[in-house]
Amino acid sequence: MIRSGADFAPMLPAILLTVFATSVLSGILGMAGGMVLMAVLVSLLPVASAMMLHGAVQAMANGSRCWFLRHHVQWRILPPYLAGAGMAVTGFAALRLLPDPAVVLLTVGLLPWLARLVPARLIFDRLDMSRPATAVVCGLLVTAAQLLAGASGPLLDLFYLRSRLSAQQVVASKAVTQALGHVLKLLYYGALLSSAQELPAWFFLVAMGAAVAGTRVGTRLLDHVPDGVFRRASSWAILGIATVCIIKGLSSLLQE
Predict the structure, then answer these.
(1) Cβ contacts of 44 within 8 Å, gap of 6 or more
(2) pTM metric for this prediction
């Protein structure tokens, strides 16, 4: 049954606050905010609405972060990344996949742990985002993760772990690719489902504004974070959030 926007009215202020806070977090770390936001949205809204709102907010947040840090963006990675992203969207469109909320949470939570524990030393440490082939693989895997779980920051982060880029360059370059991925997610779920219209159109605009405001605050704070602290904080933050998502996802599966 499709519910009207009025059914969600009591939770809209809390969602807006979450959007702002997670945008601040992503503005500082270049990640983590999208994971937290996805976990909250999929707990409160139907998957379609959660994916659409998350896509709109994160596209705006990452787009504004890219603009604020535009002088640090490494644009050469964009064309091959888009090629890989196109492959992922084509595959998902052919299958018309719609994930279950519990699956979304589990995928969001497992990605960071798998990325840290499985092949990082053997594979990802050798990858270089400046190489076109690597950027294509990154675009394919990261976009697939975005379409399945809504957020893919931990996976994208692997492709930057051994880079010689500064914190600003990492955050700015990731913002470009993440913004593109969220736009593709919007197009995919918008074409696949009509139930995303449960949320009022004006709320999308307000939430996108909150995302820009939070991003601005976060990128200003980033200037005061040393590179070493930036990388350590990113790692611990992402694993902590991932653990919470796994617990919540397992709990949802057990209750079904």
Answers:
(1) 8, 11, 14, 15, 50
(2) 0.71
